[in-house]
Every structure is written in C-alpha cells, then in structure tokens.
Amino acid sequence: MQASGDNRSIITNVLTPQFEYQLQFLDHEIGSYCTLESSSANGSCTAMYSSQDGHDLKCKLRQLESVMLEDTDSGEDAGNGVVELPEIGIWKEIMGFGKGGLREVLVACAKAVSDNDLCSVELLVSELRQLVSVAGDPIQRLGAYMLEGLVARLSYSGSTIYKSEYLVDTNVFYEICPYFKFGYMSANGAIAEAMKCEKRVHIVDLRIGQGSQWAPLIQAFARRPGGPPHIRITGFHDSPSGLRVVSKRLCKLAKAYNVPFEFNVEVGLEHFRAQPGESLAVNFAYVLHQMPDESVSTRNDRDRILRLVKSMKPKVVTLVEQESNTNTSPFYPRFLEALDYYNAMFESIDITLPREHKQRISVEQHCLARDVVNIIACEGDERVERHELLRKWKLRFSMAGFSPSPMSPVVNETIKRLLKNYSEKYTLKERDGALYLGWMNRDLVASCAWR
C-alpha cells in the first residue's frame, strides 16, 4: 500500500523530526535498510530484528503503516490535514527496548552509540528527552546530564561544555555532602600524625582551591603540646594571582592562633625546592586523576609526578581520589561505571538538599555534570576525568618507591563522628590501612597515606 504524495506531505509535517525516517523504513521489506541523514558514512543502518520474527513484525509494520499512510481523503478528518499518529509503543516493541525504565533506556542508548547504530540512537534520544529532568528524582536528574554527554559525544562537542568553575556551588556541595570533608579530614589527620614531633612543617598542595581545608590543621597544630611548629604551605596554581585571597585568609587565621606561618606560590612542581630543616608533606586530593597517564601520552605525567615527589623525600604523602574506574575503559563499560557511580552520588544529594531547593540544580550542574559529560563525551587528551580504583593507585605509588602508611585510628573515629551529621546510609570502611567513604553498598571516595 502506498500513500499519495499529498498524504506523505501531511504526515511528514506532523511527525517530529526524529521519526521522519520511519516513513522511509516502511517503504521496504523486512531485512532491508533504513536511511538517516545523520547516520554512518554510507548513509544507512541495519534494521534491528531477525528474520525468524518476520511474520509478526511484518504485521505490526503493516498496522503502523495503515495508520500513518491511510488515505486522508476518505476519513472523517478529510480536508483538515489531521492524521492520527501511531503509538510509539509499537515502535519500541519492534526495536527491542520497550519495557525498561529510564536506566535501561540510558544503557540501550549508550550501547547504540557504542555500536554506531544511529537509527536506534535517534529513537532512544527522543525517548530519553521525555524521561529525564533536572528537577526530577536522582536517576532522572543524572539521566539529563548523561543524555547531554551522549549527544555531545555524537557531535564531538564535549570539551566545550562546562568550562568555567563556580566557587559558590562548590562551597554548597562541600556543606551538603561529606565527600570533600572526608578527604580533607583524612589527609589532615595523616599529616598531623606524621608531623606531631616536627618543628618545621612544609605542606605542598597540588590543588589548594580556596585553602579552607588547611584551617582545621592550623588550629590543631596551635593546640599541640609544646607549641605549634612553623608551617609553610605551598599552593600550586596556573595563575599565582588566583592565590592571593587564599594567602591572606590563611595568614590571618594563623596569626589569630599564634602559629608561625608562611604561604608560598608555585606554578610548577619541577621548580619546587624545600628549605633545610623542613619536614615535607605532599597532598594529592582529587588531583592525580586529571593528570594524563601512559594511555594518553608518552610523557605519562601521572607516574612522572609521583617519581618527582618521591625524589623530594617527603615524610608523608596523602592521596584522596574517587573510587571509580573510568581511566582506560572503553566507552560502553565506562558509561555503565559512570551511571552506577554518579547515581549513588545524586541519591545522596537528595537526602540533604530538597529537590525544590533553588541551589540544587546549580550544584549538580557545576560540581557533577561537568565530570559526567567529560567522561561520556570525550576521548584522548580532551578527557580529563580519568578515575582509577585505589588498587591501581597503590601499584603506581609502589612502583614510584613509596610504602603504605596506615591511617591512625583517631582519624577513623573523627570521620565517624562527622558522618553522624549526615545520613546513616553513608558508610565508612577501613581496608588495608586505607579509608573508604561510600553511599549504601557503593564505595565513592578512597583516602590513604604513603611515606
């Protein structure tokens, strides 16, 4: 059965763009190809069904065709240009992804992207746009950003999204979830334990940010029996002018607690030089995963930095990283890992920040979505979010010559008290001298120390 040219025009006008290719599909027998303007190089993609189901599928296609291509000159609606569209459920069943929830549709879309099955991608993206919402439940909100990442991957635009940083949102995220506090408290505890008898302490922070993480350590040193040590903190930044406010804030705090203090700015670790008589502590908090390794560049900054720090003979080195495996994984398993990891994180935000809170969307967009999009959309040196599990970090540190330095039980107890201010669904585990902060059954952040 064929529709007249006028009927086809009417149908095309009322169809949404993502379903226009269905008309082309209906003009062929089962087993043929459908054509998409945005499909692969040869302009075609294979239909997603097997010949053994041909009879049933042909019936469904004919049913769909009869609705879509019926003669509008003979019906009650003749003359008004209105054509009743077929239910999308028929197409979902034909294409094999009709009964799953949002998570299943996200996974199906990622698999289609991985397989370069652009016919399915177009249909699934259209479906996802109806299911996701930045104001919905955790999986809907995460799904919105994962969909953004999938679309950006197809258009090669992932590196242009979320370039700027929002310090206000970072501060809010710091308060509503314990992830940053856990990392900073565990690092501070390891440094305080290692430096409890030292008179001159030099702390090197590869990502100092606003520097607020060092205020509790300065206060703790001020109360140390026998008096505080002389503290020097070196902060690294692409632009030294960005650390002026941090320097003033920490110097003012140290003065208020009568702690001898200096703040130093560096733009490259290669130029760093410790002063005689100082005991050195180096802090890697949420920074190493953004350094490219051997899978990205022969320079391998990730291992090179560790060897360089080891040559400085530090008394303690602290590591805080997200417990996730997205570094060398191919796109599809990396997508699944990100889906599981960030779903737990979005769920945890729901506990402390109501969905209707005006800052929640901004926090998720500027503190989490940028990472999600980068993980999904980017490859090569454009992908900077390259997380590794702690067991892999342990191999890197061991190969660089470091030895584990187990966390003090005092640190463990301090963090347990911190978590009482949050949900009971947060978990704290200690394994092989390292601490793991998690949400329910999923480890999210790992912290450990080395010497």
Q: What can you tell me about this protein's structure?
A:
- The protein is α/β, with parallel strands linked by helices and 451 residues long.
- Helices cover 45% and strands 13% of the residues.
- It contains 16 helices and ten strands.
- The chain has helices spanning 5-14, 21-26, 54-68, 88-95, 102-114, 118-131, 138-155, 167-176, 179-194, 215-222, 244-256, 301-311, 331-352, 360-377, 390-399, 409-419; strands spanning 33-35, 44-46, 200-205, 230-236, 261-266, 279-285, 316-322, 426-431, 434-439, 442-450.
- An eight-stranded mixed β-sheet has the order 5-4-3-6-7-10-9-8.
- A hairpin with an 8-residue loop joins strand 1 (33-35) and strand 2.
In short:
With 451 residues, the chain is an alpha/beta fold. 45% of the residues lie in helices and 13% in strands.
Beta strands, count: 10
Radius of gyration from CA coordinates: 28 Å
Poorly predicted regions: 1-61, 67-88
Coarse shape: globular
Report the structural category: alpha/beta
Query: In angstroms, what separates the terminal alpha carbons?
Result: 77 Å
For the sheet with most strands, the description reads: 8 strands, mixed
Give helix and strand order, one letter per element, not per position: HHEEHHHHHHHEHEHEEHEHHHHEEE
Strand content: 5-15%
Pfam families: GRAS
InterPro entries: TF_GRAS (IPR005202)
Protein name: Transcription factor GRAS
Motif (VHIID): 201-205
